């Protein structure tokens, strides 16, 4: 709104502050009954000011002019018989001087104030009258920032009216979805323009809400036996994908802090939503399931460490938007010394420096390869070659360069990344080409038998129905 504000101030050639109305804040001017000349002196202004401070501005209408002005006031013509100005101040003068009459008068308030916030029609009204009165008398604006917003309209963009029957009561939405859904709606909206509200919008938002809630629920469920004071694993021992997840959370922190600082709540909302759906639900949480449910203690603690650290930051980032849900999550998070009972009393997480470019590039590449693999797995599922992905064994036909890249990743980690039972790397041509240069993918039903515990297919499943890994873990 910066240009709008500048334009409206520039194009305003004058400001007539008097209005001919029967009631309002009076213009404290007197006229001589004999010669008709106006009378404004320090003493006359002080008399009115003292009276208003004592009795309020309605006193103007209660008393006669001669009772308000001190007897010592005399007109240039020698007379001392007065009448009051019948006009009132423009209401914008009234509200436009609240920075002085309210903010500077009351000890609990500050001046200049942090922010003036109102609808976009106030560029001509309150925002501007405040600016004019303050710049004229103090040389500065009365506010550090101005934030303006549009209005709520219905799903078709029409103004809400009781008579049109398209209004929405917040109480109805709260009854159906809970108050946090309204908060989520506020955060998700681009409030710089008119904001749409309607049943379908709230239904969609309740699904987004559920995604966020379920993300937290998964993390909480999987750290139920995790004591952060005892079980936390050091950074350098974490799996690389755990560090990738922490880095994704770090990026979320950076984006959301920046969005909050710029009151760009819809950007914060979208970052949060994408983190839950793309980074966590569709990737990280999916990939680490095997490690959380079936792996040995150390591998599991690594994943839990990442989940715990992500959940703590995630909940803090969520708190300004979903204040009820975030506290609900927070109350179940095992606390370390110094953590508060209420998440709103915590500090926002700080974004750390981004991971190095080689790390980023490596994971971008893994993601791209994963996308190609997923397409082939989907086709194999459609062709009834496999049911779940874990029934699949993959053969990746690689150029020398891609082979070296993938061969540097431990094979069982690679299988976990694609959530399949087995991966074979072959240097050469073959398989289905996707978007990744130098890679062909083919999927077949994995050889061997299904381990009863982890459901992966292994050629070495024992008589007890367990793969060697699971047999070892159970022994431990
Ligand atoms: Zn006079
Ligand atoms: Zn197993």
Describe this structure in words.
With 476 residues, the protein is α/β, with parallel strands linked by helices. Among the domains are: 18-89, no CATH class; 210-345, Isoleucyl-tRNA Synthetase, Domain 1, CATH 1.10.730; 357-445, Class I aminoacyl-tRNA synthetases (RS) (hypothetical protein PF0899 fold), CATH 3.30.2320.20. The protein has helices at 2-10, 42-55, 59-62, 65-68, 91-96, 98-103, 126-138, 170-177, 179-188, 199-222, 228-231, 240-261, 265-287, 289-294, 297-318, 323-332, 357-382, 400-407, 411-418, 468-475; strands at residues 18-19, 30-32, 38-39, 82-84, 88-89, 113-119, 143-149, 152-153, 195-196, 392-398, 422-427, 432-433, 439-445, 449-450, 457-458. A 4-stranded mixed β-sheet has the order 11-10-13-12. A 3-stranded antiparallel β-sheet has the order 3-2-4, with no helix packed on it. Helix 7 (126-138) links the parallel strand 6 and strand 7 (143-149). Helix 9 packs across helix 13 and helix 15 packs antiparallel against helix 16. The two termini are 65 Å apart. The structure holds zinc ion (ZN) (2 copies). Residues 32, 34-35, 37, 75, 77, 79 line the site of one zinc ion.
């Amino acid at each position: 709104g910066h240009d709008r504000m500048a334009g409206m101030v520039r194009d305003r050639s004058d400001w007539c502050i008097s209005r001919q109305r029967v009631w309002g804040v009076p213009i404290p001017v007197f006229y001589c009954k004999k010669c008709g000349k106006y009378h404004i002196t320090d003493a006359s202004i002080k008399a009115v000011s003292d009276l208003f401070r004592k009795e309020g501005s309605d006193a103007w209408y209660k008393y006669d002019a001669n009772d308000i002005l001190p007897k010592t006031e005399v007109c240039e013509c020698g007379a001392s018989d007065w009448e009051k100005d019948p006009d009132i101040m423009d209401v914008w003068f009234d509200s436009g001087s609240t920075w002085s009459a309210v903010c500077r008068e009351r000890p609990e308030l500050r001046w200049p104030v942090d922010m003036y916030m109102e609808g976009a029609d106030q560029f001509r009204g309150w925002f501007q009258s405040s600016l004019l009165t303050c710049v004229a008398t103090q040389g500065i604006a009365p506010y550090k920032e101005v934030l303006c917003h549009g209005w709520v309209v219905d799903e078709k963009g029409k103004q809400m009216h009781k008579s049109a029957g398209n209004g929405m009561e917040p109480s109805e939405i709260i009854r159906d979805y809970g108050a946090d859904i309204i908060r989520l709606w506020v955060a998700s909206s681009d409030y710089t323009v008119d904001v749409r509200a309607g049943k379908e919008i709230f239904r969609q938002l309740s699904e987004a809400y559920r995604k966020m809630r379920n993300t937290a629920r998964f993390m909480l469920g999987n750290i139920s036996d995790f004591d952060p004071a005892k079980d936390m694993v050091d950074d350098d021992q974490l799996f690389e994908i755990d560090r990738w997840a922490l880095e994704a959370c770090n990026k979320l922190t950076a984006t959301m802090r920046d969005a909050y600082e710029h009151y760009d709540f819809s950007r914060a909302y979208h970052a949060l939503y994408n983190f839950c759906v793309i980074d966590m639900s569709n990737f990280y949480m999916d990939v680490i399931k095997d490690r959380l449910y079936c792996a040995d203690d150390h591998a599991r603690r690594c994943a839990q460490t990442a989940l715990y650290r992500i959940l703590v930051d995630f909940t803090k980032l969520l708190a300004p938007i979903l204040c009820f849900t975030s506290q609900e999550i927070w109350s179940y998070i095992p606390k370390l010394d110094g953590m508060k009972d209420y998440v709103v009393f915590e500090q926002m997480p700080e974004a750390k420096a981004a991971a190095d470019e080689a790390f980023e590039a490596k994971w971008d590449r893994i993601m791209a390869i994963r996308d190609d693999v997923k397409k082939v797995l989907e086709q194999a599922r459609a062709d009834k070659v496999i049911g779940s992905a874990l029934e699949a064994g993959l053969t990746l036909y690689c150029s020398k360069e891609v082979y070296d890249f993938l061969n540097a990743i431990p094979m069982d980690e690679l299988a976990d990344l694609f959530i399949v039972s087995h991966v074979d790397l072959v240097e050469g041509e073959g398989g289905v080409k996707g978007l990744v240069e130098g890679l062909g993918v083919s999927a077949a039903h994995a050889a061997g038998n299904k381990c009863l515990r982890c459901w992966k297919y292994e050629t070495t499943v024992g008589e007890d129905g367990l793969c060697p890994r699971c047999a070892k873990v159970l022994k431990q």
